[in-house]
Amino acid sequence: MKDQRKSFSIKKIAILVTILALPGFCYYLLQEKGENRYKSLPFYGEKKLTGTFHSKRGKQIPDTLYHAARPFTMLNSDSTAVTFKPDSSVAIVSFFFTRNQELATAINQNMQQIARRFENNEMVKLYSISIDPSLDDLTALKQYKQKWGNFQHWNMLWPASKKEVEVLAKEDFLLDVVYNPTTHRPVTHSSSIVLLDSERRIRGYYDALVKTDVDRLIDEIKLLLTEEFRNISVRQYE
Predict the structure, then answer these.
(1) pTM (2 decimals)?
(2) What is the pLDDT of residues 170-188, one digit of tens each?
(3) How far is the C-alpha of 102 from the C-alpha of 114, rounded, in Å?
(4) SS3 letters for 163-230?
(5) How far apart are CA 160 and CA 73, in angstroms?
């Protein structure tokens, strides 16, 4: 009986030690191992070294300046001004024009799927930008947007001019748009949907005509949101 009590006590001690040690072990895995297993999304566009450094676990790491889309303001389909700029949200951006019905439908069906999937998440914002400001005016955009639903964080934007949207697409989002040199009307454009982080750096391109790309986009929105939360947590303890 005495040996049984002794054996029982040893088991209790072993269980207690395990319970007390587990949080510390988990913390070790997250701090020391977790980062190696965490695969961040890539950055697209030109990269520059700033000449400055930051410390990480005693190591000096050079700071990198990544390409980012510049802030801009456009009117959306309800005639209110919307400013695209760095904030606490991730952004999903696409281009379209309603005369190209087949491509516009394919792109906006996927934008609608994303808008519905993240409807209650204020950290996910969608921007659909027309490349045909003359025909896709505010009246036309308002009617067109109604068929896709009233999603609070999905803006359908009207640029002031062809030149504005052409520069924006090519220089900021690194996408092709093609205009007829004689009529200056849009001919076609990239079918890509662009994912950007809270600093408006480009983190992914996804072809709206490829289902597996769109499925991957939804997964990588979640991954980017995780990264944003992780960065917020790190800044809180710096």
Answers:
(1) 0.80
(2) 999 999 999 999 999 999 9
(3) 19
(4) HHHHHHHHHHCCCCEEECCCCCCEEEECCEEEEECCCCEEEEEEECCCHHHHHHHHHHHHHHHHHHHH
(5) 10
